[in-house]
Every structure is written in C-alpha cells, then in structure tokens.
C-alpha cells in the first residue's frame, strides 16, 4: 500500500514540539492508560510495550524510554535470519579488517544516484567511522543514494542512533511514533531500536547519515551565550501517533545488528501503535530555524559556535560527534581574515554540503559531495579564497553569506575509512592542488609598526 502525500504532516503544527520533553500522543482518544504504564488490560485491548533508549538505571536526567500501546507486540515475528543477499557496505566495528587509515585530506565529488531500483537500505553505505557498536562507543558516517521507497518492510537499527541529513529528495519517514516529512534543509533523528520505513516521494534521493553508538544527541550547553540562541528546543518536532491495522502478509523487519542485516517475517505492520508516551522519540529539525551567533568585532569564531546537536562522551566538552552547520549569516569582523582560519584539529572533521557553496572553498566542494580532514591533518581556505580575501583588503564592510548550508560531523575519535570510499571513482585526487598554489607573502620588513594596514591597535584595548 503506497503512502500518499496526505498521510504525511506538512505543517509544523501537525507535530508536537520540544526537545527532551515527556510527550504523549493518542490516535484514538482514551487509548493511553491513566495512572500507570502497564495495566492488566490496556484500553482498547492494546498491548503495552516499553522501548528503552538508556539502561534502566541511567541517571534521571539522562534516562530515556517510551511506552508504546500497540495492536500486536513487536515480538510477534518469525526468527531473524541473515539477510540475503548480504549487504556488503555497512560497518559498525571499525578495524584493520574492514577499513584503513589515511591522514591525507580527502574530498569526494557527489555520488551519482543509481539507475537501478535502490531503496534507502540498499543505497546506504558506510564511509568512515571509529569504535564499535558492540562496545557502545563510536560512530559511523554513512551516505545514501536511492530512488525507490522501501516496500513492505521496516528498518531497525540496533547499533545506534541515525542522524539523517537529506541533500536531495524528501524523505517520508514512518515510525512507530508516527510520520515525519523531512525535506533537504531539515534533519531527522531516528534513535536506536525504533522501527521505521522511508519512502522517497521525489524519486532520486541522496544524503548523509551520522550514527552514534552508546549515547544520544543532546542540545549543546550555551554557556555565556545565555538562555537563548543556536537551536531552540521549541523547534524540534516530534510526530503524533498514527497506526495501521490492516493485515500485511510477508511484511519484513530488517534489523541492523552489529553492522550486519537480519530479516524477520511477520503478518502485520510494525506501525500499529495507537498511542504512546515518553521521552525516547524520533524527531526532526529545520536547519533554517538555527539562530547563529558570531563574532562582532575581530577574528573568526571556532566552528563549535554553530553546534546544532552534540553526542557527548564521558569527558566534559569532548564530543563523540557534534553536528555543526554553516548557515547563511553576516560576516562583520574588522581587519580580520573572515573565512575559517588555517588549522590542525585534534578532532576529526567530515563535511558535507546541502546546497550552495562553502565560504572556504571557491571550487570543487559541491552539494552532495564530502570531505574528510582527520585528526591533526592541516586544512583551511583554498588558494583562490585566500588570495581573493587578501585582495579585498580591509574595506569590504559587512558581508552576508547567502544561499548555502554546509555542515560538519566532528568527532574526537580518529576515523577509519572504508575501502569502497577510499577507492571510489568519486574521490577527488586533485584536492591537494587547491592549497599547493598558496605562496609565501613573507616580508621581514612589513612589521605591524611599519605599514601593515590591517593592524589597528586602538581596537585592541
Ligand atoms: Fe576544520
């Protein structure tokens, strides 16, 4: 049964809003039990089922779980079997056996969307990552190219949470908590264990996926910024309950478990949840709602100022994976090199581009493409950008960066790269050339006390 446009929410008001709330939703009024979670007999004859996103004993401020009230429980299925044919390009435990390391700056051109029918699951492939879903610490970065909807099947990721960044083509995402419509420019988070199906109403589709093992995304602390700014909790949207009750012979659950896919048959849709409540939920966010902060006098801010969501490690301030964006915004700094500075980072940075261009690269970094600058690998603006910036001098005035949305997945772990990504025909082998032309501007006589017109000591006081 093909889903229809009218099945999916089109307005923000069709969702619940908030981040980390204890939500509740009923597709039929009176379906949620009152005063307890697991009554002897649930209203409407539903089964009560809890899904845990954290250990039962996790501290209350971190604890995540939801109660689902469904027509039949998830357990009603035949045994899991290895999926045939095997999916060869998903990794959840990065090691020398399945991936390699390379400190070189790597850039990929946008990967073509295949002509042959390919759904989200078959079109998903790991690019790089570190750690292990088995040990509940690590991450994987995937991409997908697909052109057809998943049919009579649902996907379940037992390994970690997916943060999906569609670059081309909308996603119609059906989950056990309800339906979401996710367009390029929005992101959707599908937490570990939730079953979901992805339809592609626009056909050919492409995007990026970050997966985190053993933790969940949270909003970054704002520190001295104050109580407001960056991504606002009210702008995160959570679906409302909707359910299917029809018989679905031959329905398949595809479970990603330790990076391998398994299938199990059942005769009903897993999207049979009539009501639910809890704080462990799928959600989406429109990146255009981000409220960027920036320098208003001198110097380019560190990219962490644009963090939308962060998946923490146990070390304060050290992210397993940050999701950072580079949205349209004003650049106003005086006598400042405004593009991102040259740097080497103890963290590793994977970048993608949803649309437009990126301020530090005049050419070659294209929508749908990607780059990887690993731990301590130098990077920064290309030659053309550097020379154009210097030539512009100090009188450029305020400048608005328009029509762009780049993003970064940044991790404290050192990524290993999958062989199909490293050997891909989409690797831009000339990437290094963008910096080779950087020439020496060194002049031992041009001190700040002589004639460096970019130095205004009165501003420094
Ligand atoms: Fe960087």
What does this protein look like?
- 4% of the residues lie in helices and 34% in strands.
- 39% of the residues are buried.
- The radius of gyration is 24 Å and the shape is globular.
- The protein has two domains: 270 residues, Jelly Rolls (Sandwich), CATH 2.60.120.10; 151 residues, Jelly Rolls, CATH 2.60.120.
- It is mainly beta.
- It has a nine-stranded antiparallel sheet. Strands 5-18-17-9-14-11-12 form a seven-stranded mixed sheet, with no helix packed on it. Strands 6-25-24-27-22-21 form a six-stranded antiparallel sheet, with no helix packed on it.
- It is built from three helices and 28 strands.
- Fe (ii) ion binds next to loops.
- The site of fe (ii) ion has 5 residues, from loops.
- It is an enzyme of class 1 (oxidoreductase).
- Belongs to the homogentisate dioxygenase family.
- This is Homogentisate 1,2-dioxygenase.
- Its cofactor is Fe cation.
How is the topology of this model organized?
Elements: E1 16-17, E2 23-26, E3 47-52, E4 65-70, E5 81-82, E6 106-108, E7 124-132, E8 137-146, E9 153-157, E10 161-168, E11 171-175, E12 178-182, E13 186-190, E14 195-199, E15 205-213, E16 236-238, E17 247-257, E18 260-268, E19 273-278, E20 283-286, E21 307-312, E22 319-326, E23 329-331, E24 348-355, E25 370-373, H1 383-391, E26 399-401, E27 405-411, E28 416-417, H2 419-422, H3 433-436
Parallel strand pairs: 9-17
Antiparallel strand pairs: 1-16, 2-19, 3-4, 4-19, 5-18, 6-25, 7-8, 7-28, 8-15, 9-14, 10-13, 10-15, 11-12, 11-14, 13-20, 16-20, 17-18, 21-22, 22-27, 23-26, 24-25, 24-27
Residues 343, 345, 349, 373, 379 line the site of fe (ii) ion (FE2).
């Amino acid at each position: 049964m093909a889903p229809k446009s009218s099945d999916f929410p089109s307005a923000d008001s069709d969702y619940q809003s908030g981040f980390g709330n204890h939500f509740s939703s009923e597709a039929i009024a009176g379906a949620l039990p009152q005063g307890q979670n697991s009554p002897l007999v649930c209203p409407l004859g539903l089964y009560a089922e809890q899904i845990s996103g954290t250990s039962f004993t996790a501290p209350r401020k971190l604890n995540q779980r939801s109660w689902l009230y469904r027509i039949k429980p998830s357990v009603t299925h035949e045994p899991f079997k290895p999926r045939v044919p095997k999916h060869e390009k998903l990794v959840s435990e990065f090691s020398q056996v399945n991936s390699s390391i390379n400190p070189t700056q790597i850039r990929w051109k946008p990967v073509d969307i295949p002509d042959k029918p390919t759904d989200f699951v078959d079109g998903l492939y790991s690019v790089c990552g570190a750690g292990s879903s088995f040990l509940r610490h690590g991450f994987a970065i995937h991409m997908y190219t697909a052109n057809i909807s998943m049919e009579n099947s649902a996907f379940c990721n037992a390994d970690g949470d997916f943060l999906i960044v569609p670059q081309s083509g909308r996603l119609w995402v059906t989950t056990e908590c309800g339906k979401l419509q996710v367009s390029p420019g929005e992101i959707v988070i599908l937490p570990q264990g939730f079953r979901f199906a992805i339809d592609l109403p626009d056909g050919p589709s492409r995007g990026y996926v970050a997966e985190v093992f053993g933790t969940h995304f949270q909003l970054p602390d704002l520190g001295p910024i104050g109580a407001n700014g960056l991504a606002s909790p009210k702008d995160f949207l959570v679906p409302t309950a909707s359910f299917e009750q029809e018989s679905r012979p031959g329905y398949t659950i595809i479970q990603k478990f330790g990076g391998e896919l398994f299938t199990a048959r059942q005769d009903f849709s897993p999207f049979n949840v009539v009501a639910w409540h809890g704080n462990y939920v799928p959600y989406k966010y429109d990146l255009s709602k981000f409220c960027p902060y920036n320098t208003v006098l001198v110097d380019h801010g560190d990219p962490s100022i644009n963090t939308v969501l962060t998946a923490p490690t146990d070390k304060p301030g050290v992210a397993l994976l940050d999701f950072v964006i580079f949205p349209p915004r004003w650049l106003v700094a005086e006598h400042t090199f405004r593009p991102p500075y040259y740097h080497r980072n103890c963290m590793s940075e994977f970048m993608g581009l949803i649309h437009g261009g990126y301020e530090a690269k005049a050419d070659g970094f294209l929508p749908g493409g990607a780059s990887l600058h690993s731990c301590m690998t130098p990077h920064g603006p290309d030659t053309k950008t550097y020379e154009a910036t210097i030539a512009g001098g100090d009188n450029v005035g305020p400048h608005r960066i328009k029509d762009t949305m780049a993003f970064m997945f940044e991790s404290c772990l050192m990524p290993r790269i999958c062989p199909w990504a490293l050997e891909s025909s989409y690797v831009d082998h000339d990437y290094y050339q963008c910096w080779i032309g950087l020439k020496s501007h060194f002049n031992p006589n041009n001190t700040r006390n002589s004639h460096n017109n970019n130095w205004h000591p009165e501003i420094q006081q």
